[in-house]
Amino acid sequence: MSKLEAKRFDQPDEVRPFTGHGHVDLVELSTGPVGLGTFEPGWKWSNDVKPLAGTESCEVNHVGYCLSGRMTVRMDDGTVTELTPGTVFHIPPGHDGWTEGDEACVLLDFGGLTAFVAEHLQAAGDLHPAFGWHMRAATWATNRDIAAARLSWERARKIADALPGSDPDRPAMRIAPRTMLCGTAFRVRVKMAGERFEELRQLCTAAGTRPHWPSVWRGW
Description:
By secondary structure, the chain is an alpha+beta fold. It folds into two domains: 14-114, Jelly Rolls (Sandwich), CATH 2.60.120.10; 126-216, no CATH class. The protein is built from eight helices and nine strands. The protein has helices at 45-48, 50-53, 113-123, 127-141, 146-162, 170-184, 194-207, 213-216, and strands at residues 14-17, 22-29, 32-39, 62-68, 70-75, 80-83, 88-91, 95-100, 105-109. The strands form two sheets. The chain has a six-stranded antiparallel sheet with strand order 1-2-3-9-4-7, covered by helices on one side. It has a three-stranded antiparallel sheet with strand order 6-5-8, with no helix packed on it. A hairpin with a 4-residue loop joins strand 1 (14-17) and strand 2 (22-29). The protein is globular. The two termini are 23 Å apart.
């Protein structure tokens, strides 16, 4: 049974700075993380995040509310809108965005900023926390945008594979995202090659476990 929850952004669970021009305050609820993003003057996704994300445009789904400042969002199809105080927004994957003017834009985002945090941690070389944030981003997106969730699992998979063989967490970390990628392939009509399932089976056999997703990444 769900419990009543109430948290405040002046007492966030975490504060994560961007590599430039801003930060995000995060509170964790049982339904997922909620972020308060501060995007300072000069912030632009294609300048500040694109080099970290490795994608041509932002592939994160955003649902939220603009509290102050202004931000322009341009979709890959050329559609442009401006977020101003009082704007409730849904920004699907495939966009760029930038702060307008000399005032910071402050946005309330229901989950989407977790992927930003993961990308910045990964760029800083903090691989274990980055892995955890990619997995959290995927969990939040699973029932909202399965394609975005799968992108986060793919990024988590690459991080786990890059860990040294001596890392005691590497086996479980390699299993977790692969389990979810194989288990959700049918939802996006992706035909998973037999090698992918065989790889997962071999990893689980070596670790002495089965690909049971609720317990695989518990603790991250």
